[in-house]
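Why do we care about 3D structure at all? Because function follows from shape, and shape follows, mostly, from sequence. That is the central idea of this module. The next example makes it concrete: a single protein chain, its amino acid sequence, and then its structure expressed as tokens.
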Amino acid sequence: MSGQSITDRITAAQHIVTGSAISKTVCKATTHEIMGPKKKHLDYLIQCTNEMNVNIPQLADTLFERTTNTSWVVVFKSLTTTHHLMVYGNERFIQYLASRNTLFNLSNFLDKSGLQGYDMSTFIRRYSRYLNEKAVSYRQVAFDFTKVKRGSDGLMRTMNTEKLLKTIPIVQNQMDVLLDFNVNANELTNGVINAAFMLLFKDAIRLFAAYNEGIINLLEKYFDMKKVQCKDGLDIYKKFLTRMTRISEFLKVAEQVGIDRGDIPDLSQAPSSLLDALEQHLASLEGKKVKDSTAASRASTLSNAVSSLANTGISFTRVDEREKQAALEEEQARLKALKEQRLKELQKNPSTATTNSSPISTVDGTINSTPAIDLFSTHSSTNSTSKGANDLLDLQPAFQQPLPLSTNNTWGGFTASTTPQQPQNSRGLNVDFDSVFGNTNANNLDSTASSPNQGMTPDGQQPNKLVSNDLDSSLANLVGNLGIGNGTAKK
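And the structure:
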């Protein structure tokens, strides 16, 4: 049953046709191949949970739909993929799962296709129970125990007594369901269940670390609690000792299946005298006769117990930090490999990195710059020596010899000149205001406009020539030459 089945390929092709990339990736991550979900598919789905335009309910529903398959392989890989997204995906994914009334309904799942299907169905039912409990725990406390801050200033160490007594039982329930997976080393016979076990192993380390810090906080507050609180606290501590034995057995299985010994934390048992001290304190609060114990001996016992549990917490935290560092190194190695591959591609095909329209090109891993074309630069002309910035200011005065008028002109007095063209240095627009405005007093116009030759210097230029480099003075001269005022002649 190895390899993708025809059903897998048909389903993937259907999602390709419909254009649903998420559904196609979920299908490829949960094929009938007896191996864990591929990393590239898991990474893509993790990235999808971080995108705001991705529909998280649709992604979750697609995974739920895959758990309705009759094959244990597809169902187990769907659960593993969901667990992976709950741990490494965006928090809004587990938030959505916690908001649902029901998640995985696989308590009666059974694959009767073969002997392996019978065996794996048992672990599928246990695994689905843990994922359901993980989502319920998040709903109750609004955070994931495997992701909380740890240390002396962590969440479980700084929690007040009342909230602590309500939170620790939730951790215990989740820990119990995880340990109920109860797999032996000889039952980890395929890649699917191995992938699920690795996720459970990592969850167990982080979950027990939070559990351990909650117990440390409880012991530090125990001798200051009320009688009812002490009774609950003592019961919680007794259950903690039982879970410590079970987690020790779970870690032995992890060591047997090949997990590095350095990745398995050490458990330090609290001294048995601590339990006696706790029971005696509760008995004294209930009015029972107990042997006298000095405050100094009680403080010493408590200090030794807290120190042992703190060492256990440090060991669990060190393993978690080592895992994070390994993941970071793996990511850096992958990025380095991608860069080397890209450089090799550029060396083989340098033309792919160089285009005619790009002033900057990358060849053989180096950046070559070519001067870009300046679209706004002013190029010198052989026919003109004047600068482009002074062209507007070097215009000659517009009022020179008037153009002859046509008696049948219908364009308001403006007509094309029929006289020979003027020299190049005497170009301009000639206006006959009598034709445009009717019978206009000639005194309203400047004398320089009515007599084209009046006021001209011997070289043919007007005395009030525009100033080349002064725009304001040039405009003022033009307005003065027009002489359109209040009906009085310019003096």
